[in-house]
Each structure stands twice: as structure tokens, then as C-alpha cells.
Amino acid sequence: MNWNLIISTFKMIVRDKQTLYFSLVFPVLMMVFLKVLFANTMINGVNYIDFVIPGLVGMSVMQLGVFAVAFVVAQQKEKGIIRRLLATPMRASEFLAAQVISRVVISVMQVLLLISVAILVLSFAMNGSFLALIVIGIFGSFVFLALGFVVAGLAKSVEATPVVGNMIIFPMIFFGDIFFSLNNAPKWVQTISDYLPIKYLVDSMREVVVEGSSLIDVKGEILGMAVWLVVLSFIAIKTFSFGTKK
Amino acid sequence: MLIIEVKNLHKNYGNVKAVQGIDFAVEKGEIFGILGPNGAGKTTTLEILEGLNYADVGSVTIVGLDALKQTQAVKKKIGVQLQSEAFFENLQLVELLDLFASFYRTKVNALELLEKVDLQEKAYAYYANLSGGQQRRFSIAASMVNNPEVLFLDEPTTGLDPQARRYVWELIKRIKQTGTTIILTTHYMEEAQLLCNRIAIMDHGKIVKIGSPEELIDSLLARHIISFSSDKYIANEDLRIIYGVKNVRKENGTFHLETEDPNATLYRLLQDSYNSKNNLSNLDIHRPNLEDVFIFYTGHTLRE
Predict the structure, then answer these.
(1) In chain A, what percentage of residues exceed pLDDT 70?
(2) What is the pLDDT of residues B22-45, one digit of tens each?
(3) In the 8-state DSSP scheme, what is residue B121?
(4) Which of A176, B46, B238, B301 is the most exposed place for a label (fewest CB within 10 A)?
(5) Is-annotated flag, keyword DNA damage (chain A) (predicted)?
(6) Is B6 left (phi over 0), alpha (psi -120 to 50) or beta?
(7) Which residue segments constitute the domains of chain B, with CATH numbers given?
């Protein structure tokens, strides 16, 4: 385990203004905006803002996992940064471990920060345990990091990355129960939605923070994420490469 | 003592024959240069030696290791500067050097290493904020974190202004003095002449000649080059029959005569032009340099 690489990767992420904006500033602004806009709206028997906050937190975990990894790796490949690393005895597993570990830690911090802002600034009622929230956040982060590596593997250039990324992210935002409930949508839409990784993440977060459910109560969602993690990791291993030798 | 031995190395990219059976050996402690134009196969050769590229046929031994099979072991012993490379953004130079040292499971005094390449003042700056020359010096520092036995520099001064180039040359000379073997590629004749103990002239995937700069120049039959431009048309054939002339070439309106007897050739040249009321300008006589050697062995200039 190369701790220097893990800590360096962590520093790089924290010092990157774009990541900071998309994973923290943007979701906070969204929360405030939606709070002002839908102050008295109810959805599924709860306040809209209480419904949408877990959704936004889940979405932020997804964005950080998918886009941060895919963009960073594509850029590092294109600029010749990865090639320079390959000229050292560094192992690919060292690089991947550092990416995953540092980004999962960042994701947990992101979840805690966003929920804290919601509680302190938007008087969000947190009914569940922070520990359960963290465990779910870690699961979600792993799933979307794996998806990030799949995107990085499929997109052959920096330009192609947002195209491939958005093709995957947009359906998840619409069909993931993030901003609105799909309770009145056609049955087939609901069926597709039910198996999306983002749905598992957002649903379990919502149950924990809004209804105070325990991890046992959301074991189905956690299992769903675990299955996605295995599948996506498998695809990532098949598609992702550093572009080593010609 | 030989530190690198390359035998019968071949590499194709589809139909493009990048490297076509080259052989060379590098002595411990020398600066060995591969001189050639873009597309000659220099970078491909270096990448195979560095373990970044596969060879189709051939054998490569570096510090006693089979470099085509034991790439991981070789990487630990060598330092590498790639032609188009970059380093992580958002990490300071000291952090980058510490990180690179960690890849070799070693520790490095980053400030001391930066001092060696005169970058101590930039220790806490980011790579992207350095000038071109500073970036090149930093990448040389990064290539030395593991105290390599062999240093590979792929076109270390391409794209730098003359001042920054001289700076890097001084640095390379200093590294050589510590006993490190250096193998570099270049398409600058001046760089090869100034730095290299021995030079391999490479063209179209083949090494056409190897030797010290002096040996290469001495290998030419003609000891002098007479250059001039002419107001009136002169056929190359008319120049070729002048006494002493070994070879004639015309480049951008300037004639270059390679001659063994500059006095006789010049006398006849001036006499002919006086008789035909021609006017010769920019007349110049010089000893052949590496550029002339390159043209002699490849039939074209380095820039073509």
C-alpha cells in the first residue's frame, strides 16, 4: 500500500477547485434554491425539501464518483501524466487503490458536510443515525467510482468523457427519484428506475435520514448496490486501461 | 564495461517500419546520443529500452537485465525523461519528488535534488506554473529520484530557447560527472557534438553510423566544404568535374562542394567564374561538421 500516493491523491482532489465546486458548492446552492422555491410543497407525505435533500446528497456522491474519476483519468492520460508514471515501477493496483481510497474518504466528508449544512442552515430534520448514513455513502461511493472507471475506459478522449458520462448520468438523474417521485409514472418506467444504482443509494439514504431506518431495514438497497459494484468492477477491469504499450 | 547492449531490434506499427534491425552498445559513464530527424525511430527505440513499448524482434540488455522481459526490474535502475510528459497538477514540486521516490520504495531529499537543478526557489510551486526550461529541469530531477544508473533523455532541449537549452546542457554535463550513464536523443547537431562521447546517426529506422563526433567527421573523405551562391546558373555536373571535388549538393540556392583539395578547387572555381563574368557570393570554406556527416550518410539534411 503506497500511503504517499493515497495522501497525494487526496491533496490533489481537495486542491481542485472544479471538484470542490461540483461536489460541495453546487449541491448547497441547489438545496437553498429548492428550499426557497418549494417551501410549502409536500411530496409522498413529507416536505419537498426533506424529500429532495437526500436525493441531492446521493446525486453529489454520484457526480463525484463518475465525473471526477473519468475526467481526471482522461486528462492525465492525454497530458502524458500516466505515461510518465508507467516509466516508474509504480503498479497499476497502487494507482487504482489510491484513487478509490482517497475518493471514498472525500465522499464520506461530502455526505457529512452536505447533511450538516442541511441541518444547520435549512433546519432539515435528521431522524436516522450518521453511522448508517456513512456506511451507505461508502457503498454508493464505491459503486459510482467503479462506474467512473467504466466511463474512463469507454471514453477514448477528454472530449468524449462528458458525452459518455452524461449518457449514463442523465437517465439516473431523471429516473432516480432525486428531484421528483416516480410514483405516478408508467409501470415500466418504475421498473427500470427500481434497478438503477442511484435509486438504491437515494432510497436508502432517504429511509435512514427521513424515517430513521436502520441498516438492516435497507439491506435490500445495500444488496442492490453490492451487485452493481461487482458488475461495474468487472466491466471496469475489462474496459479500463492505462494505454500502456503499443 | 557495457551497460546497454541492443541487438537486431525491430519494431513495426502496422505497415510502418519504425525500427529496422538496429545494434548498438553503450559504455558505462558515457553520454551516448542518437541523432536523427523526426520520425527516424529514436523515440520508439528509447521507449522499448524503457519498458514502455514492445519490440517485435531483438534483444536488449540493460545493467545485466533482459530489458524486454524484466521490465519492472529495469525500471528500478533507470531514470526516464519522456518527450511529451507532464506531472500531476495541484502538487508542489517537493511533493511530486517525494511521491516519485515512493514508487521506487525509497526516500529522497527533495530540496537537495531541486537545488541540483537550480529550482530550490520553486520548491513549493506547481509544475504547470513553471517556464518551459524549468519544467525540463524539473523532469530531469524527477528522473533522478532513484539515483539511476542509466538516464534516458528523449530530446531534452527540443522547444527551448537558446539560453534555456544551454542551461540544460550544463546540467547534463554535471550529471555525467557523477558517473551516471546518459543516453539521449536529439535532432540538434550542436547538442550532439557538445555533449556526446559517441553518436549513433539514425535515419528511417536504421543506424547508419556510430562513432565519436571526431571519428564521424574524420570518416568523411572530404576534409573541407566550400559553400557559395552564384548569380548565374551552374550545373552540378560542371562543379563535380573540378579537381578535388568529391560531392556537390545544392540547397536553397547555395552550393556545397565537398573537396579534398580546397586550394585547387577554389582556384578553379574563381577562375571559371571570372571567365564567365559570373559573381559568386557568400563564399565560405569550413571543416565538415556533424550536419555534413549526416548529409553524407543519409543523403538529406536533418531538418527534412
Answers:
(1) 98
(2) 999 999 999 999 999 888 999 999
(3) G
(4) B238
(5) no
(6) beta
(7) 1-77+148-212 (3.40.50.300), 83-147 (no CATH), 221-287 (3.30.70.980)
Alpha helices in B203-289 (DSSP H): 213-218, 236-240, 262-275
Question: Can you tell me the distance from the alpha carbon of B33 to that of A24, in angstroms, rounded to the nearest whole number?
Answer: 52
Inform me whether the C-beta atom of residue B268 falls under 8 Å from chain A C-beta atoms. no
Instruction: Say whether B82 sits in a helix, a strand or coil.
Output: coil
Which residue in chain A has the smallest CA separation from B94?
A: A8
Q: What angle do CA A60, A51, A144 make, to 5 degrees?
A: 25
By CA distance, what is B127's nearest residue in A? A81
Nearest-angstrom CA–CA distance, B266 and B257:
10
Which helix (H) or strand (E) covers residue B59, if one does? strand B57-62
Note whether B91 and B99 are within 8 A (CB).
Answer: yes
How far apart are the C-alpha atoms of A79 and A89, rounded to whole Å? 20
pTM for the model stands at 0.87
The answer, yes or no, to whether residue A223 has pLDDT greater than 90, is yes
Positions in chain B short of pLDDT 70: 221, 303-304
Quick check: B297 contacting A, CB < 8 Å?
no
Whether the pLDDT of residue A244 is over 70: the answer is no
Which of B52, B105, B183 to mutate: most A Cβ within 10 Å?
A: B52
Report chain A residues touching chain B, CB-CB < 8 A: 2, 4-5, 8, 11-12, 15-16, 76, 79-81, 83-90, 94, 244-246
User: How many whole angstroms separate alpha carbon A30 and alpha carbon A28?
Assistant: 5
Quote ipTM for the complex: 0.88
User: Which residue in the set B75, B84, B95 is minimally distant from A88, CB to CB?
Assistant: B75
- pLDDT digits over A71-123, tens only? 888 889 889 999 999 999 999 889 989 999 999 999 999 999 999 999 999 88
Q: Please say whether the beta carbons of A45 and A51 come within 8 A.
A: no
Residues 6+ apart with CB under 8 A from A55: A176, A177, A178, A179, A202, A206
pLDDT score recorded for residue A39 = 81
